Amino acid sequence: MTATAPQPVRVQVPPRSLRHDLRAVKIVFHREVLRFVSERMRVISSLIQPVLWLLVLGTGLSSLMATGGGDGVDLKTFIFPGVCAMTVMFTAMFSAASIVWDREFGFLREMLVAPVSRGAIVIGKCLGGAFVATAQGVVIVALAGLVGVPYHPALMLTLVGELFLGAFALTAFGVLLAARITNMQSFFAVMQMAMMPMLFLSGALYPLSGLPAWLGVLTKLNPLTYAVDPMRQAVFSRLQLPPELERAFNAGVTWNGWPVPVWLQLLMVAAMGLGLLGLAIVQFRRGD
Amino acid sequence: MATGEPAIAVTGLVKRFGEVTAVQGIDFTVEAGEIFGFLGPNGAGKSTTIGMLCTLLRPTAGSARVAGYDVVRERDDVRRNIGLVFQDPTLDGYLSGEQNLRFHAELYGVPRAALAGRMRQVLEMVGLWERRRDKVNTYSGGMKRRLEIARGLLHSPRVLFLDEPTVGLDPQTRASIWDYIRRLQAAEQITIFMTTHYMEEAEFCDRIAIMDSGKIVALDSPEALKARVGKDRVRLHTDDDRAAIAALKERFGIDADVRDGAVTFSVAGGQEFVPRLFAELGQAIRAVSVARPSLDDVFMSYTGTSIRDAGGSARDWMRVAARRR
């Protein structure tokens, strides 16, 4: 470099507009994906756990069920939607945790001082987290054949769509947590505390029919139940099963005896996702 | 920003955190194109002031205009026109240098058509063009700081805020960062507002404000501040020291004595005094040296502490603790 400084290329930053906010959403989203792809260990490790659940635990418990006289439905088939949901859940939470990470490493500040709406940043983060989580889910969905779920295109699309919806709501929940909890250890502790009961009370790993009353009530209060049930219904709709097995393994969610339709369940998940997103945006705006 | 309008204009700025008043009503103006330095001991209110000017903190009272915009009412306009380099790195180490810049450009809405050229220019300016595709985690501390400076400049801000830009860097890297800062100021004609606790760096500023306990206690060019503090120290080598001392007393009313083999005395405006000395002393002078008061002396006289006590490791500790919170 010499003393003759070249004429600087001046750039003009335009005033804030919807287009600008959309660019911000896109780049925050893009970064989420880039980071995920660059961390191969994270990709691999977040896939190992569900594969273990599905193929090892599923197989082990299947033999137990077979000796117990239950037949007709492979346990692996049964827990398949639950494991898909679980994969997505962990990845979504990890994405949300990256906000806490960003705060600790200062990068959050770079985002928060930009002349862009905080809403755009939060939306980008949630969409990015949901996308990455769904991509993980797709890998598990691709294992369908191994557990006796047919590769029907409509079924695959339905599952992926439902996974995305659930992932979005979960990322929004995580981002909301990350707005308040500014330290990594506490964040993971709270996350663990929220996720484990949610998972166990969701019907991801056991059928919702014939539960004791207290457990039945808890599962109905659990938001994750309404993300898992539509996926199970989608899977079971492709299996030709006798009605009594269908009733035992795919009872669906009922409110006081009324079966909650799938569209309403999905609507609830979507509404919850949007509500959490709104709260997260409010939280991040309050920092001003 | 209309021509002639100051880059930063602050009037009666106050910031209170509960019971504590961190900034107690300060006023100052920074002209466009200046390098303006903020000096002060730890807890003096420098970072709080920068926070308000960067729209990260809302003032309790008073007003501030940056690049011609009000920091409260026209927050986004201010943000579009300032570049920030914080004390602590704010880079994504998992992305490459180029990806970090691209992220910034998209967030600031830099027009795509101009982006490639601008990106190359700022990266070349800080000497990181060759390393642009490497992950930031592989950069040294100095390279990271340079990348942050490049990023702060990417959207052609009118005012660049540098909060302790060279803290934690070795002297050689510090010198090279300063080299970049001065070259950049010449090339981009921007205003630079910085805080530092290295006195030798404060010397590079056009003007300095010394802050203590939330107030600005002095504001002027480094030269003027030093002149105000005190007298320069003049040392003379003469053929007849005794006669020279007598002549100084008689002609100028100055008390001098012999220290370390030289006639030594203090006088205001030492450099201007030397010609008079030669003209009027009436004694042969073999050599003369004039030592200006250092900025350390200035700092000491206004704040009662040495900057070295005020800065240093205790401060770094506090910062780490504050970030963890």
Automatic annotation (TrEMBL), chain B:
<dbReference type="GO" id="GO:0016887">
    <property type="term" value="F:ATP hydrolysis activity"/>
</dbReference>
<dbReference type="InterPro" id="IPR003439">
    <property type="entry name" value="ABC_transporter-like_ATP-bd"/>
</dbReference>
<dbReference type="InterPro" id="IPR025302">
    <property type="entry name" value="DrrA1/2-like_C"/>
</dbReference>
<dbReference type="InterPro" id="IPR005894">
    <property type="entry name" value="DrrA"/>
</dbReference>
<dbReference type="GO" id="GO:1900753">
    <property type="term" value="P:doxorubicin transport"/>
</dbReference>
<comment type="similarity">
    <text>Belongs to the ABC transporter superfamily. Drug exporter-1 (DrugE1) (TC 3.A.1.105) family.</text>
</comment>
<keyword id="KW-1278">Translocase</keyword>
<keyword id="KW-0067">ATP-binding</keyword>
<protein>
    <submittedName>
        <fullName>Daunorubicin resistance ABC transporter ATPase subunit</fullName>
    </submittedName>
</protein>
<keyword id="KW-0046">Antibiotic resistance</keyword>
<dbReference type="GO" id="GO:0005886">
    <property type="term" value="C:plasma membrane"/>
</dbReference>
<dbReference type="GO" id="GO:0046677">
    <property type="term" value="P:response to antibiotic"/>
</dbReference>
<dbReference type="GO" id="GO:0005524">
    <property type="term" value="F:ATP binding"/>
</dbReference>
<dbReference type="GO" id="GO:0043215">
    <property type="term" value="P:daunorubicin transport"/>
</dbReference>
<keyword id="KW-1003">Cell membrane</keyword>
<keyword id="KW-0813">Transport</keyword>
<dbReference type="InterPro" id="IPR017871">
    <property type="entry name" value="ABC_transporter-like_CS"/>
</dbReference>
<keyword id="KW-0547">Nucleotide-binding</keyword>
<dbReference type="Pfam" id="PF13732">
    <property type="entry name" value="DrrA1-3_C"/>
</dbReference>
<dbReference type="Pfam" id="PF00005">
    <property type="entry name" value="ABC_tran"/>
</dbReference>
<feature type="domain" description="ABC transporter">
    <location>
        <begin position="8"/>
        <end position="238"/>
    </location>
</feature>
<dbReference type="InterPro" id="IPR027417">
    <property type="entry name" value="P-loop_NTPase"/>
</dbReference>
<keyword id="KW-0472">Membrane</keyword>
<dbReference type="InterPro" id="IPR003593">
    <property type="entry name" value="AAA+_ATPase"/>
</dbReference>
